């Protein structure tokens, strides 16, 4: 028995919902329905079953109805028709008291803009869910502090949200949701407002949490990479309707329709990707200034065994390996004496043409424009790019 | 439009509604009036019982506690209050404070829940918004009329009018503040299963607090501005000083009273702004519990002293009289002389200056005991005819009063009938409600001047005398509505224009009238009023003293001390 069972769930915004429903049956597009009836289709005839303990990601572009769908689950938005069964209990038919009970005990929500109360401290925010259930102050404080400890935020418990960074605030949001010890966690684009690095960290943390707590997590995202990293199963939505449900692998290898194919960027990458698309920032040494010791230090800190050599004007001058640098140190030579050549490519060269070059080259390739260094291409990136395009070719 | 329907009797409808309310709900109105008066008199007495020096020091210390960083405000509080005390306006300040506090508290008690209701229910908002617009744009004066009809004169109708006028900002800002709570926070509160009440008290009100406080601050300021207007219907306080200064064109007095109001407004404004602290500020300052305790301590010491003092002060209730008058120089003189004399004989007299029509109405309704300011038979004939069944006319207290159109002696014209184009065809009048103005309007029609484009410009008795003085200085034409006894006849060379059609009547008498059952209630007071009599010369003496800069009380005392026999005769 699935944890969450969604059957024929529909939400139409506006007044003339009956007429709009009729038009949706006839497969009339969203914009035309809006023109004819003034009603907006938020979600239409969604059927999903979500198992206990899985991370279920719902994806789609903005306006696809994914945020509406998640709010229908805890009835922040009242459904027009259909039902949401949680442990065989139909949430959409509950009276006020029972609905409050479900919200308090079974589900908690995390928001894109964090949704922290600015006038409450971090601790008061975290214990909010327990506070409104009437839990005794000392018990709820203990639980909230435990949740903050798990999020490494206990030191900040007496601060206010405005004094914390975005990542910290979202960890508080997550701690607040978990302090309730819910069975289901609803996450509405929870990491979209964070910068990419923190976003990755948060995704990792979420995965760690999941191994520890085994909650059912329904995660909304518009980012394919995020979905692939954390999702056990993914549903893709368009105009309020589900296009495809499956594991990341299934969706990448067998897209159900053109929309999904477009969504996962179904293009032959080797035909369009250029050197510029796959190059990475170079790790270089200025051989007119740096000596061999500096070069060796740089290699240690950057964890590489060679550096691209440039002059003061960032003009490309060659390549310095760790052996070269050691030799220069021993014999007291300047770096310019020991630099060797490395293959160069122009920035608009296609990946398909780079393939044979990189196969033979002992060093990475330098991407050069009019003698100046732009970046370098390493073997891994090329393989990655080609692998992605290969996957989509074998349809 | 007019030809199609004719003029709609809207004014009549409104009168009928107010009449119906007054007759059918009189029990409730009277109850509110009695309780309200008791409460507010008690509050004012309590505030006044706190010694001024203690009040000033207490508020200064509070200012110091609340804004230790800004010494400017502390100094301002101290100096400003000292100034008010020094100008003998302390009792007025306390009355005003009571009025403002009670109006504001009632506005908050009604306004905040209404604002919450508006923010929660769309249809309530749709109904209430236009009503609020109506309340805020309708001139404050308009509320005074039904206020008197419902609650009589004094502080209760003042509060009533202030509340109507000052309520909207609190309602609006509460509604706005709650609607402005970010949607994702509301969703968060809902998603954790908050009941509507929990959501309101844990999220919406705390977040809307600063907006609501801004609204309350506005409300307090509006209530303060209503204080002056409400003094026309007998609300005590600084407003009376401002109003009488306007009516007597007394620049200095008006400025001093106005300044006292400004001081009070700024102090209240700054204190209410201090209450508005954002949570981040709390973190930086650290909440200091001792502040709260110190503030509470000061508060209780002040209240305690007030209680103790009022306990000591409340002696036996003396024989009381509620005397009402209009702020014309003549009536100021007579009412004050009578009041001072009666006080010297152990009576307690409450003097309330009012607009003329309201003065008549208040005696007729039994809300005031008596007035010695009825000019009969002509000047106040309209009021007398309206209320004659509801009052007890005791007869004249001064004979030989005259009214008419008055010009400087240097003007050639001698009769109203000879007027052509003098003074730009303009007659400078006094308060529009005065009986004399009705007579002047009649005269314009009777002598066919209206059709020639003559105008009667209403102002106030004070403004009229200022205009007269200015014109005489510049040797210009001016025609004013004048009366005797009046000090202007002592000061300038003036003459009455002849009135062949007797529109202004012959020489008039100034009469005393009381409410219907004063004779049974307060026979002693009634007897004094019956005996009160003096002459035109007496009155003009007092008036001249006042116009030369003496205070009314001391001018009255001087006259009383010089005429002991005459005064004693009143109390036989």
Automatic annotation (TrEMBL), chain A:
Keyword Transport attached: yes
Keyword Lipid metabolism tagged: no
InterPro entries: AAA+_ATPase, ABC_osmolyte_uptake_ATP-bind, ABC_transporter-like_ATP-bd, ABC_transporter-like_CS, CBS_dom, CBS_dom_sf, Gly-betaine_transp_ATP-bd, P-loop_NTPase
Reaction(s) this enzyme catalyzes, per UniProt: a quaternary ammonium(out) + ATP + H2O = a quaternary ammonium(in) + ADP + phosphate + H(+)
A Pfam family reported for this protein in Swiss-Prot or TrEMBL: CBS
Recorded GO MF terms: ABC-type quaternary ammonium compound transporting activity; ATP binding; ATP hydrolysis activity
GO cellular component: plasma membrane
Enzyme class: translocase
Family of the protein in this entry: Belongs to the ABC transporter superfamily.
Assembly, per entry: The complex is probably composed of two ATP-binding proteins, two transmembrane proteins and a solute-binding protein.
Protein name: Quaternary amine transport ATP-binding protein
Gene source species: Weissella soli
